[in-house]
Fold:
Amino acid sequence: MIDLPTARLRADILHETRAFFRERDFLETDTPLLAEKVIPEPTIELFPALFSNPYGEDRELFLLPSPEYWLKKVLKMFPGIPVFQLGKTFRNREQSGRLHNIEFTMLEWYRPGCNYRDIERETREYIRAMADFAGIRVPDFHRMTVEEAFSRFAGLDLKHLCDDPESLRRVLSERDIFASSSDDWNDLFQRLFITLIEPELPSQEPLFLYDYPAGITCLAKQKEGTQYRERWELYWKGIELANCYTEMTGAGTVKEFLTAEAVKKEQAAVIKVKPDTEYWRTFETPYPASSGVALGFDRFLMLLAGREHLNEVIYFPFTP
Structure:
């Protein structure tokens, strides 16, 4: 359970976070936690909720795993305006432990007219500002491509694995890593990454690991002339802190992507959802070219407070 000094630090960092973005002319949003239709994400299970309607039919809603669904609609409403949100998010069917709680606080922000490299710089500025306030020294940031990580830590040429699930499956077999016959390319890659790469990443210095294979599905722009997407994840002290990408552009491209994801979601989901089949229209003009990042606020606070477990920085953690 959180103690009083950590509770005070939490309150202060929430305040300082809002000040950081407001000083940079961001609009703080306050979007719903619930939606009737959602972005179909096959790897994330949602919490269903029931609106019991005394005047008509009941309606099923879903607690959202991030504010992304609504924030991108806000970008369409106010093109050219950077936005951020601090709020609760929810993930069903996940372990609760040192780095996981089914309800958690996320900081998410989007800036029009920029790409993932611009957001990387802004993320560095935010982390240093919060660390300075908390009296924590941040070591020098480092950068590494996913391709470099595979070569350095596993002796593998990622370019030759990007489009070939059978090659990935052979590598897993050679390294005695379990793989199910039903695993697709994405599943196989994640098994390899979590087993061979993630444990070897530098732990003391913050690391931006960037340019992930295009086979990892998300609404990220593909890096021109490559097999990769313009995306990075930030690791510090062995903890995944943030996920960023340059937004996929073109409503038609987004429609094609979301249609394929909806099929995967229907096949994979334990909790059946209603995909928003019209969400792609959000990306029509005047939706701006932009980039954004989602940062796990509770995990970040753990590092600032020198704690080892999420239970030490959140109020009333969930016990399975």
